[in-house]
Design goal:
Elements lengths: L3 H6 L2 E7 L6 H10 L10 H12 L4 H6 L1 H6 L4 H17 L2 E8 L11 H21 L5 E9 L5 H10 L5 E7 L11 H9 L5 E4 L5 H9 L5 E4 L7 E3 L5 E3 L1 H8 L4 E3 L1 H6 L11 H6 L4 E3 L4 H4 L3 H12 L2 H15 L4 H28 L2
Bound molecules: zinc ion (ZN).
Zinc ion binds next to strand 1.
Length: about 375
């Protein structure tokens, strides 16, 4: 089994993580005091973290999403967003993440006076500060922003246009998030069209709590290049008692076209999409060689890090260093950063990093 130290030192890539789902509990308490946010259930960081985790682990996506009211509540000022984004980059870098796309819905931070553009600007500024701190501590990280629109709201076109305006400053794509049932991706077709006409990138939360129609619409109507979760694609796969696997047309399309799946096992258990990590389709899908990537979704709500998620996968399915590298290269191949940037990270950071760890492991096995 991989040690947590090995997992932490291994270079990792992250494609699905929410800025408002990864705040440090102590930062929420600080910001609430600084900006007179009244709603917190407790001002003790440890109790607050436990309260949020309990609230997220209620086996319903709608209940899971309720816990964001407090994190979004303290993200209404420029300096608060900068601080949270900087700490996000710093925490990921310290965890051995070398490339991250972190998403946020700027419309959530416009309750007071900020505009969409000001929110995105603050987010990017925070990532620059945090990445610089990470590099100074010996953990370089490339941070990118995905701009999200909320699927139950009606601002997706405006949000998509804002995402396009910031594409040369570190925004690499557009996403929709929020409750899936009743809010199918085609509601936001105009926003997706805007993005596609600008040759920009799309990932869509689809197939998390809702099934195949959502995945089908995301891919075939909205132009999604990746699927956020996409876990329900298993509904189109049957495994016979003798082990024969049959893929339906949609599952075959997803595998043949190498559509990346941004899988987040622990989050799926908490939101009720899957009963346990042991039963999570991530294992079947990786064995069938779908383009699987491993992600955190919401580090605070689920009490996870990229490393802990890899450790859980290794404990449950025995993935080892080889599969860990495969998942990481899958993520780098699927990232929305320009090709040359991704290639440089794969060849100069990811592959040498795993080669080094493998050499270290064989030395341990061989003995002195
Ligand atoms: Zn998500």
């Amino acid at each position: 089994m991989l040690t947590i130290d090995t997992i932490q030192r291994a270079p990792k890539a992250l494609l699905h993580d929410h800025l408002d789902g990864g705040l440090r509990p102590s930062t929420i308490v600080d910001l609430a005091a600084e900006y007179s946010y009244q709603g917190l259930p407790t001002t003790d960081p440890g109790e607050l973290a436990a309260w949020i985790r309990r609230g997220a682990d209620r086996k319903s996506l709608e209940l899971y999403l309720e816990t964001f009211v407090h994190t979004v509540g303290v993200l209404q000022e420029r300096d608060a967003i900068i601080r949270v984004a900087a700490e996000c980059a710093e925490d990921l870098a310290a965890d051995g993440v070398v490339y991250a796309e972190v998403r946020y819905a700027p419309e959530l931070s416009t309750e007071r006076k900020l505009t969409l553009d000001e929110v995105i600007d603050a987010n990017l500024e925070g990532f620059r500060i945090g990445a610089a701190r990470g590099a100074a501590a010996g953990h370089p990280i490339t941070m990118k922003v995905l701009v999200t629109a909320m699927r139950q709201a009606a601002r997706s076109v405006e949000v998509a246009e804002a995402a396009i305006r910031w594409r040369d400053a570190g925004v690499v794509g557009f996403d929709i998030a929020g409750p899936e049932a009743g809010y199918r991706p085609t509601r936001h077709l105009e926003a997706f069209d805007r993005i596609r006409h600008e040759n920009f990138h799309i990932t869509i939360h689809a197939g998390e709590s809702f099934g195949l129609p959502s995945i089908w619409e995301a891919l075939q109507f909205c132009g999604a290049e990746r699927l956020g979760h996409g876990v329900r694609i298993v509904d189109d796969i049957s495994v016979e008692p003798d082990g024969t696997v049959r893929l339906g047309r949609l599952a075959a399309f997803v595998r043949d076209r190498r559509v990346p799946l941004e899988m987040c096992p622990t989050s799926n258990v908490h939101s009720g999409a899957v009963a346990s990590v042991g039963e999570h389709p991530v294992d079947l899908l990786r064995r069938l060689r779908f383009r699987v990537t491993l992600n955190t979704d919401n580090r605070l709500m689920s009490g996870v890090s990229v490393s802990s998620e890899f450790a859980t996968l290794d404990e449950t399915f025995g993935i080892g260093l080889g599969e860990m590298e495969w998942l990481t290269i899958n993520a780098m191949k699927s990232a929305f950063a320009p090709f040359d940037e991704r290639l440089a990270l794969i060849n100069e950071v990811v592959k040498p990093g795993y080669a080094h760890l493998r050499a270290e492991q064989s030395r341990v096995v061989a003995g002195p």
